[in-house]
Structures are given as C-alpha cells and as structure tokens.
Write a structure and sequence with these properties.
Oligomer: single chain
Number of helices: 5
CATH topology of the largest domain: Arc Repressor Mutant, subunit A
Largest sheet: 3 strands, mixed
CATH superfamily of the largest domain: Winged helix-like DNA-binding domain superfamily/Winged helix DNA-binding domain
Radius of gyration: 16 Å
Order of helices and strands: HHHHEEEEEH
Structural class: alpha+beta
CATH class of the largest domain: Mainly Alpha
Strand order of the largest sheet: 4-3-5
Number of strands: 5
Helix content: 25-40%
C-alpha cells in the first residue's frame, strides 16, 4: 500500500477547509499512523490519556467531518463494526475471521467491470474479502 506522508497536518486540514484544532490534528495523525483501521473506541482509548477533555462524541464528529471532506474512509465489513482509514487511495480490505485484523491490499478498483450504466454516479468503491490471514493459517 502507498505510504501516507503529510509534513504538516494542520496545513493539510486547512487546505481541506477544516479548522485544525489540536484534537482534530491528533485524531488524523493517529489514523495516518495506524495500519489497524481503528474503531471510534480504539481511537478514543488511544488518545484520552493525552487529551483528557476528549469525548467519544468529539471523535465521532471529527471522523464524520473527515469523511465529509473525503480525507478518511469509513470501512464497514460487518454491520456492527465501523472502522476508519486515512488512506483514501483505491484499495481493498481483507478481514481475518480468526484474529479480526483488517489488512489493506492493492486492487484495480478503477477498472472494476460492472454492469452499472453510465447514469450511476459512484461516490465510493469498496472491496472486502474475509477469510484467514497467513499468521492464523500457520497456527491452525
């Protein structure tokens, strides 16, 4: 997968018309540095020690803003679990049924052949696979 590198997150957020508060900068930075595709709870737990005034509502609102500005994707492989990904390039996700980890993989989503007519406007493309990752396969 492509490596995300943004020298100044505050300037990046400003360029997307997002006020770069400390909480927003840290949430985006956490997403950029995470390969785990974290949930709201995981983001909250990771940052609450550093930002005692952080609330889950702030995390939700910030992520919704990031999604609206198209700098974060919501990854929903299962109905009851929403994860977030700061890598908005076209790629797929694989979730291991045993350990629950979500992995990125390269996918040519641009050339995905469908029978949708040209009158459909596509805002997001997602490819999800589920199965067993190599680490869990070795254990079994």
């Amino acid at each position: 997968m492509k490596e995300m590198k943004i020298d100044n997150i505050g300037d990046f957020l400003k360029s997307k018309n997002i006020k770069p508060s400390f909480q927003r900068i840290r949430i985006f930075e956490y997403l950029m540095n995470s390969i785990e595709h974290p949930t709201v709870d995981e983001i909250y737990k990771a940052l609450i020690g550093e930002i005692p005034t952080l609330s889950k509502t702030t995390v939700y609102n910030t992520l919704n803003l990031f999604i609206e500005k198209r700098i974060v994707h919501m990854v929903t492989i299962e109905e009851n679990e929403v994860r977030y990904d700061a890598d908005v390039s076209d790629h797929g996700h694989f979730k291991c049924d045993i350990c629950g980890k979500v992995y990125d993989f390269k996918a040519n989503i641009i050339e995905l052949d469908t029978d949708l007519s040209e009158s459909f406007i596509i805002n997001q493309k997602d490819i999800f696979f589920r199965g067993t990752c190599p680490s869990c396969s070795k254990k079994n």
